[in-house]
Amino acid sequence: MTEHAAEPTAPELSDEELSEQKQVRLAKRDRLLAEGEAYPVSVPITTTIAKVRERFANLETDATTGEIVGLAGRVVHSRNTGKLCFASLQAGDGQRIQAMVSLGEVGEESLQRWKDLVDLGDHVFVSGEVISSRRGELSVMVKDWQIAAKAILPLPNLHSELSDEARVRSRYLDLIVREQARFVVQARAKVNASLRDTFAKHDYLEVETPMLQTMHGGASARPFVTHSNAFDTELFLRIAPELFLKRAVVGGIDRVFEINRNFRNEGADSTHSPEFAMLEAYQAYGDYNQIADLTQEMIQNAAVAVSGSMTVQWADGTAFDLGGDWDRISMYESLSEASGISITPETPLAELTALAEKEGVEVHLANHGKYVEELWEHFVKDSLVRPTFVMDFPVETSPLVRAHRSKAGVVEKWDLYIRGFELATGYSELVDPVVQRERFVEQALLASKGDLEAMRLDEEFLRALEHGMPPSGGMGMGIDRLLMAITGLGIRETILFPLVK
């Protein structure tokens, strides 16, 4: 709050009103340029709003400190009176302090310039004594001030919410006016730092692998295609870093991870974005059970880094517990239980087809594995609210995964589900180059039948495997989805600048 009654809510401005305001502000810019600068290269800042608020948090009402500070912020509230003007200055982290510009401190000319030139949205530098006002508000009694950057367009109405569309199209405005938008950016930084810290404790090395690739692979997804003028060749934006990270393991980097961008030329919805941040990690002499343990540890550590607890607070006020040991369930057994029909890797395709038709489940380019996964999503997925590892997938849908050590027809793969969406996946990696070639050939056959997500046969990756890759466990997790699990928000809210039409 500033040292005055709350401003009345202003109506949204029409395009014509915005144009008029812009012309008025441009005229003020011209005057500032004529008198000096509207956009100085620097201002003599001595501290920040956050540091002043921390140092003088317990200042008594109507007290002085004798402490002179120089700080800057964006004007988000303002009121001009005869001999005293009030402004609320906001820092980038959202913290605010009141600036009081009085006739007695700055003189008549400076006070009038403030009234004439300062608008909402301007960045302003103020210098003066830190005080507590008569209403107990921490303030700077201004002795000197300067425009740090003149805003030509006004801020949106601070008393009403931006629309969802405005939030993502003009995220810079969202960051200015909405605390939750700033929180998500800060939370994301804390999550990434926590992930790196957890990996460091387990002796992992962080690397960077190509985003432009001559052959896409590492996942079942449609790629973005581009062209290199320098090499006169078709290139793909990567859909996953997996095949290059495995090359690193072949080369002796036994514990390796990467946090970077992936691109998939597919649909966009509340849990999918064409461009997204991805974490992948591989551990030599590990398996999918050890990788599940590591994944749980990473997510729980990230929750604590953001919330101070494994119980996180979602945007809608829901408290969600990420603590404890998470359940591990079998895909086939959970599907059998939910459907009331025994379904195993030996269940004939005709039976799966009949069940899908009965339930209205459509399966494109069907095989046994795809029917099982689609039916599992229909019967089971939405019931998984608590974090749950879904274990042991059909071999047909997992071409990069090792066959299960004791169960025929399935592979050692898990997907981690939290509140109904997939957050991460983990494998015991397929390291036999002969079997891997066979799997790639099967994928090529699917591609020839029209499966646009099928993998291509990657000879260079196979050549790397033929030099010997140790038994390994690997995992992949969407960073944006991890933020969704911690904040309860949709994917477009967790990405700072999401792709929009």
TrEMBL record:
Keywords: Aminoacyl-tRNA synthetase, ATP-binding, Cytoplasm, Ligase, Magnesium, Metal-binding, Nucleotide-binding, Protein biosynthesis. SUPFAM superfamilies: Class II aaRS and biotin synthetases, Nucleic acid-binding proteins. GO terms for cellular component: cytosol. Gene3D superfamilies: Bira Bifunctional Protein, Domain 2 (3.30.930.10), Nucleic acid-binding proteins (2.40.50.140). Residues 1-20 are annotated as: Disordered. Mg(2+) 2 binds at E422. It comes from the Bacteria. It catalyses: tRNA(Lys) + L-lysine + ATP = L-lysyl-tRNA(Lys) + AMP + diphosphate. Residues 188-498 form the Aminoacyl-transfer RNA synthetases class-II family profile domain. It is an enzyme of class 6 (ligase). One of its GO terms (molecular function) is lysine-tRNA ligase activity. It is found in: Cytoplasm. PANTHER family: LYSINE--TRNA LIGASE, CHLOROPLASTIC_MITOCHONDRIAL (PTHR42918:SF15), LYSYL-TRNA SYNTHETASE (PTHR42918). Belongs to the class-II aminoacyl-tRNA synthetase family. Homodimer. This is Lysine--tRNA ligase.
